[in-house]
């Protein structure tokens, strides 16, 4: 089934990334470099980076639709991040994904 941004619910992607010892500054830079450009991508409703007290990074994104998220994930920006980030991360990201079931403020869906 094909969805369109006009009919699909917003989707969220969120998770934790743990830097390797001695790599926190570089992972922080790579993640920080994603924020403003990603916020400018079509369909971006929320894009936030947090740093936890334990040193992990928490990334929270909300996209208008799965199509918008797919377009974002296909950008050179994200492809470059995905190729560089593993060198600085301890294991795979702890990631979660889902369709938003509560109404989005402002009726973005």
Automatic annotation (TrEMBL):
The record's annotation in PROSITE patterns points to: ABM
Q: Which UniProt keywords apply?
A: Monooxygenase, Oxidoreductase
Q: Where in this chain does the record put each ABM domain? A: 11-97
Q: What is the lineage of its organism?
A: Bacteria, Bacillati, Actinomycetota, Actinomycetes, Streptosporangiales
Entry keyword annotation includes Oxidoreductase: yes
Q: Which InterPro entries match?
A: ABM_dom, AI-2_Isomerase_LsrG, Dimeric_a/b-barrel
User: One GO MF term, please?
Assistant: monooxygenase activity
- Where exactly are the transmembrane stretches of this chain? none
Organism, per UniProt? Answer: Actinomadura nitritigenes
Entry protein name? Antibiotic biosynthesis monooxygenase
KW Disulfide bond (keyword) present: no
């Amino acid at each position: 089934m094909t969805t369109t941004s006009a009919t699909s619910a917003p989707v969220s992607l969120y998770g934790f990334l743990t830097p390797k010892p001695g790599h926190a500054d570089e992972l922080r830079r790579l993640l920080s470099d994603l924020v403003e450009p990603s916020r400018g991508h079509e369909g971006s409703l929320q894009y936030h980076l947090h740093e936890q007290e334990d040193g992990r990074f928490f990334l929270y994104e909300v996209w208008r639709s799965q199509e918008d998220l797919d377009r974002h994930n296909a950008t050179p920006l994200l492809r470059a991040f995905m190729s560089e980030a593993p060198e600085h991360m301890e294991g795979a990201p702890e990631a979660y994904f889902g369709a938003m079931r509560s109404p989005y403020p402002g009726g973005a869906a």
